[in-house]
Amino acid sequence: MKTKLMMLVAVLVVCWTGTLLAGDETSPLTPALSPNGGEGVGLYADTFLSLRTPDFKDSTYGYGIGVGYQVTRHWGADLRLSHQGLDAEGSAVQDIGGRLIARMPWETLQPYTFIGGSFDLERDAWHIDPGVGVAIGKRLQWFAEAGIDADLRGHSGYKFGSGLRLRF
Fold first, then answer.
1. pLDDT band, very low/low/confident/very high, at 44 (cuts 50, 70, 90)
2. CATH for 42-167, options being 3.20.20.60, 3.40.50.970, 3.40.190.80, 2.40.160.20
3. What is the C-alpha separation between 56 and 72, in angstroms, rounded?
């Protein structure tokens, strides 16, 4: 899984580097307010369900909300709040995290990769969350994500998520 993730990231970097070297007007560094790079730029909110497999043994479902900003057509960042478990036990917000996102802004299909970090308030642990995802739609999008869920204490597993995203 880690090898496939690294290969996908490498392919995306090579593609974006090629557009930069070719002088493409829609390169990842095009300013957000330029007429060529303004599509898809702006604020968005999402809600999601997730599945974590800590230590690859058991699974924990969760849900959450997020808000983000697409700075350019290719680069964005978001903040997410989540609750682990589909019950009302524990704090309402158990996990706070942020991510940097690189995406390919095609018409209605938008694959992306992300690297993020989060802090688990209940377990007092930091997590590193790299992964990949795909969003389908224009203003209202369905998205699915998969990635690695690793804490700084040496535990790791997979994390899967899916939800709806509304672009403003």
1. very high
2. 2.40.160.20
3. 36
